[in-house]
Specification:
This protein is an alpha/beta fold and 469 residues long. It has 15 helices and 17 strands. The chain starts with 23 loop residues before the first helix and ends with a helix.
């Protein structure tokens, strides 16, 4: 494959040569530019050779702390953030890896619940850059954007040092660059169709790759899955002699009630103990499911198993969940009319969001702003949202893989009909148009705008609208 030969672009400036060294913001932009010159994260070569070589040179930093590893199709980031909050409640120092970011690349590496500082990000990159160049020189392909970020995270966590790392895969599992950790607790959120060109055409095929994070002798905390995906996961667990904890059997959501600002849930843990009246400040059945996965993962990490009556401190559990946030996941950033941001970018995620909107919000008129990414099932996303949206404003984000607004609009017209589709290529104009349409309702308390379709779209809208963590 001629397009896969090693890129011989010279490395970026050293700190002494870097004119941005005294300006963290400028230095961060310089590092982002260097990272962007590498293979993007949507282009992968299925091998752990490069990241393993970097870890060898760095002295295996990822093995200096225990880890919890998370894969799945939807819910990974929120589940990771919930796990992190629970661990922090028990006075553990945490590192968290999530991707992609909503606004800033620094979000991808968090320490103690907060994104690493711009200076910390730059320093970590500069510290490992010479070793990355050594790997580049020795391998047929240079390290990719995501591989370097994974290496940075593992190095930063060792340097902190952290007590435990919470690691979300980038894509898949077996060949994902994060999969050089020996996580004794792995979490698999619901699997549905996404990245089908790389991971497989059915949930069962996709599960082959995702179940690769289950480690020998470990514990796999598994959400309810399609039958073929569940069979694949169980087969992998048997092969590596891992224990499986299944949602709906060993743990799960017993009850949930809609509450102001979120929901009140009762969760059954691994020992059978029920954690009653836990407030989760996020909307939808899928977020209650994420909470049950997070609780089971942390129980497994602390060794709470089948022994009847064993449990975590309930006050700490309640405090942890009450403090959870998940930017860009049905996030309210404006009122009158209400503006929601949601990063749903595949049909499964869009359906979960649509169900949550029906349950938690009493909109008389909801207008969508949708900008999607090439390679995704845009029609499936539009079809999932059609029943809850009165009209849709089609737009595009600034990402290099954004579907052109006119092209996406053709699909939207097939789903919504021409009279319910407006096209505004600029995102700021699209939001303004959607607000104007919503305001036609008259009762602004019953009007709303939903910005969705892509994490990039949501991130850019969040900047425009001043969203806060």
């Amino acid at each position: 494959m001629s397009d896969a030969r090693r890129n011989t672009t010279p490395p970026g400036p050293t700190p002494a040569d870097d004119p941005a060294a005294d300006d963290p913001g400028q230095a961060l932009r310089a590092v982002e530019a260097e990272l962007a010159a590498r293979w993007p994260e949507d282009r992968i070569e299925p091998s752990l050779d490069r990241i393993s070589a970097l870890m060898d040179i760095l002295g295996q930093p990822q093995r200096s702390y225990p880890s919890i590893h998370i894969t799945g199709t939807n819910g990974k980031t929120t589940t990771a953030r919930m796990i992190e909050r629970l661990l922090l409640a028990f006075d553990l120092r945490t590192g968290r890896v999530t991707s992609p970011h909503v606004e800033s690349v620094t979000e991808r590496i968090s320490l103690d619940g907060e994104p690493i500082s711009a200076r910390g990000f730059v320093d970590t990159y500069r510290d490992i850059a010479p070793y990355v160049e050594m790997v580049d020189a020795a391998q047929p392909l240079r390290m990719s954007y995501f591989e370097v970020l994974a290496g940075m995270a593992y190095a930063a966590f060792a340097d902190a040092p952290v007590d435990v790392a919470v690691v979300e895969v980038g894509m898949g599992g077996s060949w994902d660059a994060t999969n050089v950790i020996d996580a004794q607790v792995s979490v698999i959120t619901p699997i549905s169709l996404d990245h089908t060109d790389r991971l497989g055409k059915t949930p069962g095929e996709i599960a082959v790759e995702k179940s690769g994070i289950i480690k020998p002798g470990g514990i796999a905390v598994v959400a309810q899955q399609p039958v073929d995906a569940a069979q694949t996961i169980l087969r992998r667990a048997v092969e590596v002699d891992a224990v499986v904890a299944r949602e709906g059997m060993e743990f799960g959501v017993l009850r949930r009630d809609v509450a102001v600002g979120g929901q009140l849930v009762s969760l059954r843990g691994l020992s059978g103990h029920v954690y009653e009246d836990v407030f989760v400040p996020l909307h939808g059945a899928h977020q209650a499911q994420n909470a049950s996965l997070a609780l089971a993962a942390v129980e497994a990490f602390f060794g709470v198993g089948s022994a009847e009556g064993r449990r975590l401190d309930e006050d700490k559990v309640r405090a942890a969940f009450a403090s959870v946030s998940s930017p860009g996941r049905l996030e309210v950033v404006r009122r009158s009319p209400t503006i929601l941001l949601d990063a749903a970018h595949n049909p499964g995620g869009a359906q979960a969001t649509a169900d949550a909107i029906r349950e938690a919000f009493g909109f008389n008129r909801l207008v969508g702003v949708i900008g999607a990414t090439a390679g995704k099932d845009a029609q499936g996303v539009l079809e999932a949202f059609e029943p809850v949206l009165a009209e849709v404003v089609i737009t595009q984000n600034s990402g290099h893989r954004a579907i052109p607004a006119d092209q996406l609009a053709e699909v939207a017209v097939e789903v919504f009909g021409a009279d319910r589709v407006l096209v505004e290529p600029r995102l700021d104009d699209a939001i303004d148009s959607a607000v104007a349409l919503a305001e036609e309702e008259g009762d602004l308390g019953g009007a709303g705008v939903l910005v969705t379709g892509s994490i990039v779209t949501v991130g850019e809208a969040r900047v425009l609208l001043g969203g806060k963590d």
